[in-house]
Amino acid sequence: MKLLKHICILLLACTTSFTFAQDEDTVQFQAKVSKKKLGLNERLRVDFQMNKDGDNFVPPSFSDFIVVGGPNQSVSNSWNGKTRRFTKIYSYFLAPKQMGTFSINQAKIEIDGQEYKTSPISITVTKAIQKPEDPNDPDYILQEHIHLVAEVSNTNPYLNQPISVVYKLYVSPTVGISNYREIQSPVYNGFWSQSMDDQRIKAQNGTYKGEDYRFVTLRKTVLYPQKTGKLVLEPLSLDLTIDVPTNRRDIFGNRIMTQAHRTITANVRTINVKPLPEEGKPDNFTGAVGDFVFNLSTTKNSLNATESLQAKIEVSGQGNLKLFELPKLTTPSTLEVYEPEHQENVRTNMAGMQGKISDLYTIVPQYKGKFPIPSVSFSYFDLKTETYKQITSDEIVINVLEGPVYAEADNKLPVSSNGKQPVVLNENQFAFIKTDSDFTAIQNDTFLNSTVFWTSLLGPLLAIPLALFYRRKREERFADVTGNKKRKADKLAKKYLSEAKKALGKKEAFYVALEKALHNYLKGRLNIETSDLSKEKIANLLSERQVDNQVILAFEAILENCELARYTPITNVTMQQDYDKAATTINLIDKQIK
C-alpha cells in the first residue's frame, strides 16, 4: 500500500509539473480593466497584457471614450529558479464621454507569427459620483501630475528632411520626484539620428495643457528619415521615485514622506514620411535634400607638365550633407587624376546639418597644351519650393606651358574619369641575366668526429629539457583563460580587419567585417562578453584603463559609422578612411591601455 501511495504521489507531481510547463508555453493575451462600472467623472484603466513579446500591436478604437493617457508600456522579467516569467503590458487611461453601456473592443497583436485577439469587455457608465480623490495615491499622482511627452517638430516630412524629437518630463509643482532611471531608450529604426543631449539637466518653468508645470528636457535628437511610409518612434521609459506624503508627522509637525517607484512611458509617435516627387527629378540626382551652393574650382590654371594642381568639388549649405554622394569629376585622359580626398566640415544642431563637404582631386598633366575640364552638374531637392534644382559649374581650361607635345589635337582629346595612363616601357627595362656560375667542389671530410656527427648524437638529448620546458609553458598558456581570450580576440580582429580590407568597395560586407573586428578586439582587451558591448560601458572601461578620451571618441565614431553605413550611401574613399582609422585607433589603444 505504501509503495502504491508513493507511486500515485509521484504521478500526480509529474502531471502537475507537465501541466505547469504547458501553461508556461501557452501564449496568453488578455485585456483587464480597473473597473467595469464607473461614474461619468471617473477614469478607467485598461491593460492589454501578454506573456510573450509580440509585434504590430493594434489597440481598439476607444470611440466611446477619451484617451487621457497612454499607451504606457511596461515590461517585467522574473525567474523563480526553474522558469522565466515574462509580462508586457500596454496601459491606457480613459474618460467616458456619456452615460450608458459601452464595449472595449478587441485588441490585436502578432506573437511568433500568429495573430491573437482579446475578448470584448462591457463597461457601464453611470452619473457622476461624488467622492474625494486620494491625492496621496502614487498611481493618482503619476496619472494626474506627471507626464512624459515626446515633442516632434514635424510628423509628415519628406524623405531625408530633418526633424527633431524632444523628450520632456513635466511635473506639477505640488509633486516631488527624488530620482529617475532610464529603463528603455528610444529606438529610431529607419532614421539617421544625431543625439543633441545636454549633460546638464536643468529644471524650467512651463505649462502643460494650460496649467503651470516644471519640466526637464531629457533627450534631444535630430532625425533624417531614410525610408518612406509610416515609421514608429519607439518610446522612452523611466522608472520614477515619487515622494508621497503620508498621514504621519514628525516631532516638528512636518508631514513624513515615503517613496514609491512607478514606471512612466512617453507617448508613441508615428512619422509619416513622404517620398520625394518623381516629377522633374534629374537623372543625376543622388539624394541631396536641403538648400545648397555648388562650386568647382582649381588651385591654378597654368602650370608645366608633371607639376600638380588640385581641383575641388564642394557643396555647402543646410541639409543632409553626410547622406549623399558628390558628383564625379571627368577629365581628358592626358591629365593624370588621383583618387579624391573626401573632406567634411559639418555641424549638427536642432535644425539639422550645416556646413560643407568636398572632394579634392590631385591632377598631374603629362603633355603640353590646353586641356578642358568639362562642367559638372549637381542637383538637389529644395524643401522651401518643393522642387528640384540643378547647378552646373563652368568649364575650366588647364593651360600646360612646358612639356612633351601630345600627338592629337587639343579638341580631340579622349575624356576619362579615372585618369589612368598607358605604361611606357624603357628599352633597358630588364637587366641582363647572368648565366655563368662560380660553383666550387665540397671538400671530402670524414663524417666521424665532425660537427654534424656530434650534433646528430647530442641533439636529441639536449632536446628533452627543451621539450619539457615547452610542455610546461604550453600548459600554463592553456590555463590562462583571460590571456587566451585576448589572443583569440586579437586573432579574430586581425582576421576580420583582413576581410574588411578585401571587401573594400563592397559596403555591407566591409562594414560587417569591420564591426566584427572592433567587437572581437574589445572582447579580448577588456575581457567582456558581446552582450556587454554598449557604447557607455565601452567608454567607461577604456577610460578606467587610462585610454585617452580622444582615442575613445575616435573608437565610438568608427562604431557609429558601421551602424550608419546601413542607411547611408558610402564611397570607396570613406571606406578606406574608416579602415585606416580603425587600424590606427586599435594601435593607439594597445599602446595606452593599462
UniProtKB/TrEMBL annotation:
Record has Ligase as a keyword: no
Residue ranges that the Swiss-Prot or TrEMBL entry lists as coiled coil: none
Annotated signal peptide: 1-21
Keywords in alphabetical order: Membrane, Signal, Transmembrane, Transmembrane helix
Transmembrane feature ranges: 452-470
Protein name: Protein BatD
InterPro entries found in the cross-reference section: BatD
Lineage, opening ranks: Bacteria, Pseudomonadati, Bacteroidota, Flavobacteriia, Flavobacteriales
Organism: Olleya marilimosa
